[in-house]
Amino acid sequence: MRKQIIKSTLLLFAIFIFSCNSNQQLHITKKNDYQKYLAYNKNDKLENIKKDIVYWQKKYDDAPNQYTYLIALSGLYSQLFEINGNIRDLYHSEKLLLDCNNRIKGEKAVIHRSIAKNYISQHRFKEALSHLEKAYELGENKKGTEKMLFDVYMELGNYDLAKEKLNQIQNFNDFDYLIRLAKWNDHNGNLDKAIEVMEKVMKMAETSKKEDLKLWIYSNIADFYGHAGRIQDSYNYYLKTLEIDNNNMYALKGIAWIAFSHEKNTKLAIEIIDYIETKHLVPDLYLLKADIYDYVGDARAKQLALNDYFSTLSKNDYGDMYNKYNALLFAETPGETDKALMIAEKEIFNRPTPESYDLLAWVYYNIGDYKNAYNVISKHTLNKSHEPLIMYHNELILKANNKLNEKNSHKKELLESIYELGPNLEKEIMTI
Length: 432
What we know:
Elements: H1 2-26, H2 31-34, H3 44-62, H4 68-84, H5 87-103, H6 109-121, H7 125-138, H8 142-156, H9 159-168, H10 175-187, H11 191-208, H12 211-227, H13 231-244, H14 249-262, H15 266-277, H16 284-296, H17 299-315, H18 323-331, H19 337-350, H20 354-366, H21 370-380, H22 388-400, H23 411-416, H24 418-421, H25 426-430
């Protein structure tokens, strides 16, 4: 009896220790780490860009025949968009580039590459491809064009051509090549290899001591670590990003996601998002808030967040940039499935990727047309994408068609991707 009591006591103690360790692992964010960035009102980078715009605009006004001034202005407005999220700045950047291109009769490859970069930001990938093809024909800096062609081929789902371009630019000492190699490995589901490559890139960036390179790699490797379940590493590199750029809203959003998805600290997540809204207002912030309010069961706050999302879209012309979000929302909203279907078909026309076909399959699934949903995934998404959301949709569609079995199920991978998918889907995945 005494031995049994001792065993029970030891078991309870072990459970207590495990519970404490689990809680310690769960709580990663620390107020002292990030609080100063939520009260940072000064943005030297933004102020310098505004001063530079005034400077170059005056130079252009004084000498409107100098088209190079338009290129400088365009780049500045593009940077402005990256900081404040105002789509009008991106469109103004495009306008300046098109004006410049017309003046020189389309004979400069560098202008075509700049236009293509702008169109990539707008999700106008076919138009970006057209300008890159013109840049390639013109010949100047073909390597630079080939790197961007890889990017666009990936966005358009032309993976064979993307692989071909990747081979053409192969150089294991080149930063630009390595980040694309990492993207290729991630696309093929080899996340460990992608991280290995990114870590090599990080060493190169740190050796170069170039702040812009370190800023890029720290923020991006933080994402990769998060996808791999290395949440502490992800958090650390978001903080490293903020050390370089105190106003980096991308890193703050990453920390908000950790607070929500990993720690279930919805209050902190909302606090960070509310701050980001004052500096960098983009529609998808409202979708994140809607997810958080959905998780806590606040239906009214969720609807208000969705109203703010659609209001922001209506006030600004975002083109096709939010098609994916809209298709997913409308697919799950009774009475809006026709809109979802139209958007999904448009996305397939714009970029026939597994991601676009997933939207179509998800619309069919939500209207109860399981047969058509299965036909779509069997041709276009099954074993063709490692994106957790697509795999989740595939799982439900297979189940609805009585075709889900141990061999084709990816439930284990989905459970490992809960952090990336978000806590709202955890219960759904458990019941598949």
